[in-house]
Amino acid sequence: MGALLRQWRERRRMSQLQLSAEAEISTRHLSFVETGRSRPTSEMILRISEHLDIPLRERNGLLLAGGYAPAYPAGELAGMSSVRTVIRQVLSGHEPHPAVVVDRDWNLVDANRGIGIFLEGAAEELLAPPINVLRLSLHPDGMAPRIANLGEWRAHLLGRLRRQVAATADPALDRLHRELAGYPCDQPEPEVELPGAGEVAVPLRYRHQGRELALISMTAVFGTPLDVTLAELAIESFFPADAATAEALRQP
Predict the structure, then answer these.
(1) Which residue from 127, 149, 154, 214 has the least number of CB within 10 angstroms?
(2) Average per-residue pLDDT for the chain
(3) In a domain, 85, yes or no
(4) What is the average pLDDT across 54-66?
């Protein structure tokens, strides 16, 4: 447990002095915990995890490594009726604009009818459950051929996934990042995202039925999750970035 804790501290680029001050424990005690000379209580593991902003799944892993039972349940979404009701309200209320619910691995959990514009023309194997929305987006047999600003959008998605890997240390997400980074792209990919004229967010410029739609996205998460599954859900909503796109999405 101590070695895992040290890895998380170093990943967050915090010194033992910083962490001990924030978690209100002595530097000596923290050092003993990291070297295995002292066995922390479960309460101390959770307190340190909070100050290191460790995801709930990994907090459970630290507790198990320390010889304690997990503190956070990992329920099935099918059994969370109130959560599913909220999700459906958000998805249906966002129509006709596209919206999806994804898990930590970017697998599709739910979606509204607006998502149909992104599925048209995609290879069947990319639409077989579980659908990974990042793979669908950047795969040459998925949405990629219809994304007018593929280089820009790809850089945005890969950068976001890279930051998620850094935050979670999830090997599955790291493998996904390496897979997606290997997909072909015939457009330049900016190293730094800079706005174009009049832009306030990176738009998705998507060709659909002879039109180019301009969409901006917004991510929503549950604010105070105490369940691993709930903590790892995100709602990705797309909004029209101009009047022409709004009108096109309103048409049946």
Answers:
(1) 127
(2) 94
(3) yes
(4) 96
